[in-house]
Amino acid sequence: MELIPLLKQVELFQGLTAAQLEKIVAIGTHRTVPEEAVIFQQGSAGDALYVIVNGQVEIRFDQPEGGSRAGLYMGAGQLVGEMALLDHGPRSATVAAVGGEAAFIRIGSADFMQLCQQDTAIGFTLMRNLAMDLSFKLRQRNYRPSSGD
Amino acid sequence: MIYKVSYVVQGGEYPGGIKNETERPKVGDTVQIGRTKFTVTEVHEIMPPRDDFQFLHATIRPQFDEAGT
């Protein structure tokens, strides 16, 4: 599958040239998983970030009384797993495909960080875009709509 | 233009979502978040556009609420 057109639809890669996107392709792996497949589990070690290119995933949080609760749904173009990539902590949630199969690009943490250090122009753009994405997610989490009634 | 949309559900009983759209959502549109269909009730810009992206909040309501069930 040609990955560059998919990467151009993702905010994380905005501002990168075609040559720079080729370097991303070189460290990314395209995968498709069936509905309900778990991409990673809460509490596991974070060794990669995932860019959703098709379908939707559910972000689930373990509950103290057992089971889990859906906290957010993420669709095409969104990042999951970036927190553990940045802070090296365990996964903060479980991520699973919902509503059908989901396709994503997996980028290993070590490869990602090595690319950022080797090519600081790419590194600056990716880190700025990651910060923008985290800012967007924080605004989404903080937003409280009016009742609408 | 790509629209990065934060979908937030009125009442807070359902999780919201984030996804990219190729068309700007409009009031009255139907959107599926997870397993549930919702109606868009409000759309506004979160922050200024950057490159090919616009950043939007869309408030949504579950469609079965509209049916009174």
General description of the model:
The complex is a heterodimer of chains A (149) and B (69). Chain A has 149 residues and is α+β, with helices and mostly antiparallel strands. Chain A has one domain (3-136): Jelly Rolls (Sandwich). In chain A, 36% of the residues lie in helices and 32% in strands. Chain A is built from 5 helices and 6 strands. In chain A, strands 1, 2, 3, 4, 5 and 6 form a 6-stranded antiparallel β-sheet that branches. Chain B is elongated and about 35 Å long. Helices cover 6% and strands 62% of the residues of chain B. With 69 residues, chain B is mostly beta strands. A 5-stranded mixed β-sheet of chain B has the order 2-1-5-4-3. Chain B contains 1 helix and 5 strands. Chain B has one domain (2-62). The interface between A and B is medium-sized, with 30 and 29 residues. Strand 4 of chain A pairs parallel with strand 2 of chain B, so a sheet runs across the interface.
Largest beta-sheet characterization of chain B: 5 strands, mixed
Poorly predicted segments of chain B: none
Strand order of the largest sheet of chain B: 2-1-5-4-3
How many distinct folded domains of chain B? 1
How far apart the termini of chain A lie comes to 47 Å
CATH-defined architecture of chain A:
Sandwich
Mean pLDDT of chain A: 91
- Write down the secondary-structure element order of chain A: HHEEEEEHEHH
N-to-C terminal Cα separation of chain B, in Å?
Answer: 37 Å
Strand and helix order of chain B: EEEEEH
Instruction: Give the DSSP E fraction of chain B (strand runs of 2 or more residues).
Output: over 45%
Mean pLDDT of chain B: 90
